[in-house]
# Entry
Amino acid sequence: MKILVVGNGGREHALAWKLLQSKQVDEVFCVPGNGGTVSLERCHNLPIRLDDFAAIGRFAQENDISLVVVGPEVPLSLGIADYLLAQNIAVFGPTKAGAEIEASKAWAKDLMAEAGIPTAKSAVFTEKEEARAYIKTQVAPIVVKADGLAAGKGVTVAQTIDEALSAVADIFQDGFGKVVIEECLIGEEVSVLALTDGLTIRPLLPAQDHKRIGDGDTGPNTGGMGTYAPAPLCTPTLLEQVEREVLQPAIATLQKRGIHYVGVLYAGLMIAPTGELKVLEFNCRFGDPETQVILPLLETPLEELLLACTQKRLAEMPPIRWKTGACVCVVMASGGYPGDYQKGKEITGIEPAQAKGAIVFHAGTLAPDNPKSASQNPKSDGGRVLGVTAIGENFEDAQAKAYAAVDCIQFEGAYYRRDIAQKAINSTIEV
Ligand code: AMP
Ligand code: GLY
# Structure
């Protein structure tokens, strides 16, 4: 079969790479893909924009595409699934109504309240002055969230009331019409991504992201500087609790609202030192870079699971099979990220890195003129450039392999954290 993947990041490279490992998958097409997807055998980049649904639909119809897998939230929240489903094209990813769970924090909070899902106490405001007056009655730290897609930049964990007040001003200045003010939770974060056909939900291995730019979780937030799975923090007992108290009520409440949600439901969780869990956010898609550490550990053919979701027969699928061991992904970013950074830097050393057993997922790269030729090098084309990923028997092993591969790769200004997965290594819980 032929599958079309929408998106151009590391997550989509990982999806295409995994799909192509299955004997049932003959070819993968990426819209628009990147320098990594185009270098995969039997994978083709298409010069179509993410939001050109008509062109995507036409290509799928004319080329006998069995499944469209949507990576990013933006096309989902613009209704790509609705558009393709209306043409009888199978699509993995929720409709516009379902994508509200990520696109509107206020909507997600309301759903959580209705479903009885544990989350931080919050208040929603559409008027700047009301939000500011409310903040003045609260104590810092306090969290301010823009209501809308903000590419990971919509949340301020304000350490002072003044910082929260100016975050509110910025949000309305930037054109958002709503703000969510939330109690600040403490603890450790974990991402639980689950596949769903709208009725049944199957969690994937829990993963932990490293959102801050600096070692030891310091400095500004980023899209994610590295990940590891399975996160020891989320024990099998905790995962069952997440399923029971978060994922199942979310799906049941979506159904009650008439939303048949097909795709990934991603719960970003905070686990308090007491073990209490609360939802920080929901996303309507695979996480990036969580996907880069979850998929290498997956044994069950990915397309079987995704098709079971689109055909509403996830309940009939045998349990998902996983490799044993651990997976670590170190993101190599452009110097200056998450602030201003330069693009177009030539990247060398990917082949030697792969020879060390790593999988080098491209996050922001441009393909060389002849992408299947090994003699040309890709160029950086984004803030996060590569996700250097390795599987090991345990976290020490996977971390050592990932960093040995990172050491092989060079581009001007390359920056990466040196402590990815250290928390898992220090954890007393066995994988
Ligand atoms: P979100 O986009 O809602 O996941 O927020 C981005 C990041 O902000 C999260 O990964 C957390 O690190 C932080 N964050 C969000 N909400 C809270 C909260 N209520 N308390 C503490 N940190 C939070
Ligand atoms: N890694 C965070 C996200 O995908 O939103």
